[in-house]
Amino acid sequence: MSPTTRIHFMDYLKVFLSCTVIIHHAGQPYGGSNGFWYVQDSGVDSDLGAFFGINAAFNMSLYFFLSAYFIPLAYKHKGNIGFFKDRLKRIGIPLLFGFLVIIPLIMFFYYNEYRGYPTLSFFEYYKNVYFGFGEQPLNWTGPTWPDLNFGHLWFIEHLLIYSLLYLLLMNLFKNIKLPKMAFIPNNKSIFIFAIIISFITYLVRTKYELDEWIGVLGFIQMEYAHFPQYLAFVILGITAAKSNWIHQISAKVGTFWLSFGILLIILNVIGLVPHSRGGWDGDSLIYAIYETFLCTALSIGLIELFQRKLNRKSKWVEILSKNTFCVYVIQTPVLMGIQYALISVPVSGYIKFGLASFLGIVLSHFISYFIIRKIPVISLLFSGNNPRRSEKFVARLNKKTV
């Protein structure tokens, strides 16, 4: 298989995962997420708990896998200094912009709309509440004080950290011959991988529950409950770039694990899976095993399926794929506007969920492609969304990864 064709199915997979993220956030006001969100719609009686559990089990882990896959290739192509500068420009600048502009704006909206405190100007909020230079209000509703956070940009923050850690490790151990890490994509190795990550996940969740976010070192936004899966898939992505094991997944193996993942989804939907946020009990162990096997099964199955069925060039998919980085950054404020507008619409929460999902996907891509990419000054803040730069980069990688 030529390297040119190898990249195409990943475009499809990136677009698919981007949509799952938007849909996940689109459903937040409509019941079952048990997490913090910026828009509250108390007039709905829907429950999307099963959807949230299924989607959260695999989509970000697989997103980490795809992102990590390109880390060694970029490092090999650019070298130490070039890789460092590239990561700071492509990831660091959008992250900083989001941290200083996008997140404060959406938290400012939440503060004035839902917290019940006297209305503040944006400057007052930005200084006194977001950065915490003012006094903490009585009966503070949180989720933290001050409001300073990365919000949905935590994924980009982690990706930058993993990239820089990779750079550090490559330099620390460049003169040491380490054993090559190779993942063999057969049923036995996949099962062993899932079992190991399941029990690590369970042990972590005995102390840290699902949706419990911690500020590691004061600035790394971390949900420990999913961290073993995320880290494992980052490592899998790096090994895939070095050994190309993803191209060795047989149709038989991929079909088996995808079918198994679908079976696990059905068991969840019909209520046969004991949900647990964490702890030492049996339900916590069962759910950690269930979620990890669901994550692994769907990830392996989707990688093989997309590679086998969608490994072809598509102009529209390439355009959408180039939008995914920018879309990820802007999709939360876009969805907030849609969800807030839907509050007064007299339809069920399920219909609102469908509308918010569809409009969120369409508008996020529209804004990214027709507005952000067309304004040079703004597009610099989303350098990961630069289409010409991306095409040149992929073309060079193709020559180096035959």
Assembly context of the chains: single chain
Number of strands: 2
Helix content: 55-70%
Distance between the termini: 9 Å
Brief descriptors of the model:
mainly alpha; 402 residues; two-stranded antiparallel sheet
What is the strand and helix layout of this fold?
Layout (H helix, E strand, L loop, with lengths): L2 H24 L22 H66 L7 H9 L23 H19 L14 H19 L7 E4 L3 E4 L3 H17 L7 H19 L12 H28 L5 H28 L6 H24 L3 H4 L7 H14 L2
Antiparallel strand pairs: 1-2
Write up this protein.
The protein has 402 residues and is mostly helical. It has one domain. It contains twelve helices and two strands, in the order αααααββααααααα. 38% of the residues are buried.
Précis, in short:
The protein is mainly α and 402 residues long. It is built from twelve helices and two strands, in the order H-H-H-H-H-E-E-H-H-H-H-H-H-H.
